[in-house]
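Budget justification aside, the reviewers requested a transparent look at the raw inputs and outputs of the sequence design task funded under Objective 1. We therefore reproduce one unedited record. The lines immediately below are the structure tokens for a 131-residue chain.
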């Protein structure tokens, strides 16, 4: 965004006083915006982890050995293929649930941001930038 885009012309200025409620709304919007960024990053991480588990499940199916090394945190356990497959599927289900919860949080946060954006733009017009 160029400097000219950020400068508000005199015609677009709004001399509405900034009340404490307005400042609280601006602050809430800023916090929600930061939270959305965090949620987006968490969703991307969850999706990558889901894809990694999908890939691990595919590799497990192609495995000829009867046992595999299964990582749990910093430890490895020897599991039979069937048990490892079940563990992968359980982990994927938990990750999918977490990702769905994050997406729901994101939608709720975006909805509240839209409400705040509408209120603030209604009062301040082009005098305020909310992004």
């Amino acid at each position: 965004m160029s400097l000219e885009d950020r400068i508000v012309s005199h015609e677009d200025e709004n001399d509405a006083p900034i009340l404490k409620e307005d400042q609280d709304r601006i602050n809430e919007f800023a916090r929600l915006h930061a939270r959305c960024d965090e949620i987006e990053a968490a969703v991307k991480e969850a999706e990558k982890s889901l894809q990694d588990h999908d890939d691990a499940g595919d590799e497990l199916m192609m495995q000829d050995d009867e046992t595999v090394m299964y990582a749990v945190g910093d430890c490895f356990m020897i599991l039979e293929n069937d048990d490892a497959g079940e563990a992968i599927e359980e982990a994927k289900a938990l990750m999918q649930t977490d990702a769905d919860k994050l997406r729901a949080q994101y939608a709720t946060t975006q909805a509240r941001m839209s409400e705040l954006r509408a209120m603030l733009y209604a009062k301040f017009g082009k005098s305020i930038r909310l992004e």
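DSSP finds three helices and two strands in the chain. The mean pLDDT is 87. Computational costs for records of this kind are itemized in the attached budget.
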